[in-house]
Design goal:
Number of domains: 2
Oligomer: single chain
Structural class: mainly alpha
Radius of gyration: 16 Å
Helix content: over 70%
Number of helices: 10
Length: 197
Amino acid sequence: MNSIIYDIIALAIGYVLGSIPFGLLLTRLAGTTDLRSIGSGNIGATNVLRTGRKDLAAATLLLDGLKGMAAVFIGAALSPEGGMIAGLAAFIGHIAPVWLRFKGGKGVATFLGVLFGLNWPTALIFCGVWLSAAALSRYSSLGALTASVAAPAALLILGHGGEAFVVTIMAAIVFYRHRENIARLRAGAETRIGQKA
């Protein structure tokens, strides 16, 4: 019974951490345009970059990743499965924060942070695949999608079946959140890195 209670606590902590909208908070503090009124309307680093503030975009990327990693560490300290539960909850919290009527970001940075918390070698593989695919194709979205597929495969190869299951769920959600990008990729209309939308 105690384990179940701790798992519930891990889930709650993970969701609350994940739902902190760092992109929105940072841009508001800096006095820039409301993120929800530009670009994709998302609160993640990619949309922050559309404000023209690379520093804020980098800070958003870092903080969105750190909240995922922090959730895993806190959850793992509470129960054996707490790290995976809190990590998944943080990822969902970023995508659907209750404070913003469940309209958040696409979750890639938080996904990466959760990976660093669960299994850092897989997180490095994710980074390598993401950067390589994005550099070769010049499509940021394709890099993220490719890396999202590589992550659960890497976990399985490394013998982390439980983590692979959780990360597969996250990867499926990433694909769903990128459905418009996927449609544009198929139509050849997706904006390339460095290209004006």
